[in-house]
Specification:
- By secondary structure, the protein is of the alpha/beta class.
- Strand 1, helix 2 and strand 2 form a beta-alpha-beta unit.
- The protein has seven helices and five strands; from the N terminus they run αβαβααβαβαβα.
- Helix 5 crosses helix 6 and helix 6 runs parallel beside helix 7.
- The chain is globular and about 60 Å long.
- It has a single domain, classed as Rossmann fold (3-Layer(aba) Sandwich), CATH 3.40.50.620.
- A five-stranded parallel sheet has the order 3-2-1-4-5, with helices on both faces.
């Protein structure tokens, strides 16, 4: 009963602490990293690149066959203006994969900071995975707020409630997995 109560309290804490604005929007990072999978993420990343919030934009989790020029056309951007500064990652198929794929790219570029763009409800787990994969990189969260997710009154909207519950469970699983990896490394080392 106590475990269930802790789980429920944890869920309400999780839902209450989702970002509701972009708190560090004035910080310029070396790079902008966008996680695919939701509306407004790529356009937000392109806007940040255009505004000089990063030198390059990395989009993680892109479908095989999608090219930068096509993506820019779909976003109604001029490919010749941004093509040089946008890199697509095709290897990731989940949030942990996004973090590992981004880590490789960030290391190749020699960057020490990034602005992470994903949905607000996805930001806690994304930050958890990215900070675990890249503990020495400064990460500035840049949440986007999908219209279909009713974050403020989530309990009144079954779809939003289900989405937040699912994300909370994934967050807890990622916490446990990352903790187990740290413990294993300590025991080996």
């Amino acid at each position: 009963m106590a475990v269930l109560l802790l789980w429920v309290i944890g869920f309400f804490w999780f839902a209450a602490n989702l970002p509701d604005d972009v708190s560090e929007d004035a910080q310029v990072a070396d790079a902008i990293v966008v996680l695919t999978g939701g509306s407004d993420r790529i356009n937000t990343g392109l806007d940040l690149l255009t505004q000089g919030q990063g030198k390059k934009l990395f989009i993680s989790g892109v479908y095989q066959g999608v090219e930068v020029q096509e993506l820019l056309r779909l976003s109604q951007r001029a490919p010749q203006n941004l093509e040089c500064c946008v890199k697509l990652g095709y290897q990731a198929d989940d949030t942990r994969g996004n973090a590992l794929e981004s880590k490789t790219w960030v290391q190749e570029q020699g960057y020490s900071s990034l602005r992470l763009v994903t949905a607000s409800y996805h930001m806690p787990r994304s930050l958890l995975e990215y900070r675990h994969a890249m503990p020495n990189i400064t990460i500035y969260p840049h949440p986007v707020f999908p219209e279909h997710v009713k974050q403020k009154d989530w309990w009144l909207w079954p779809g939003s409630t289900t989405l937040l519950l699912s994300e909370y469970v994934k967050y807890l699983l990622a916490q446990v997995r990352n903790w187990a990896e740290v413990m294993q490394a300590m025991l080996i080392g």
